[in-house]
Structure to design on (127 residues):
């Protein structure tokens, strides 16, 4: 008889994508508590960024973003997007991934609001 290895309420049952979504959700909630103006901003996850093929970054290396901002239009809210695969590739474990996700959310929120990342989260860059 085959069945799930673990019951659904056990973290083992969560996929990597679901776990990553949870990290973004947790970071978004932390930022919304600190900055109410982020209340109407959507936080989303995409697997990989859509690259426009413009070539390498300023230092000659290809630059793959970890997140981005999509400005709202036609009644759609602003959106902060975190790219799952690039973040996963740059982090060794869950703790480092959680910190990187939060840093990306802070950076994108700062860009969206026109603030310094340290204004969005005073602990930014200290970990």
């Amino acid at each position: 008889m085959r069945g799930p290895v673990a019951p659904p309420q056990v973290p083992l049952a969560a996929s990597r994508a679901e776990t990553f979504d949870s990290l973004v959700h947790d970071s978004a909630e932390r930022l919304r508590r600190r900055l109410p103006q982020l209340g109407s901003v959507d936080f989303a996850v995409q697997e990989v960024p859509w690259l426009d093929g413009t070539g390498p970054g300023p230092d000659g290396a290809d630059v793959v973003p970890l997140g981005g901002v999509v400005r709202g239009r036609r009644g759609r809210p602003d959106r902060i997007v975190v790219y799952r695969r690039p973040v996963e590739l740059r982090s060794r474990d869950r703790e480092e991934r959680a910190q990187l996700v939060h840093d990306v959310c802070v950076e994108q929120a700062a860009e969206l609001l026109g603030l310094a990342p340290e204004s969005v989260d005073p602990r930014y860059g200290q970990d």
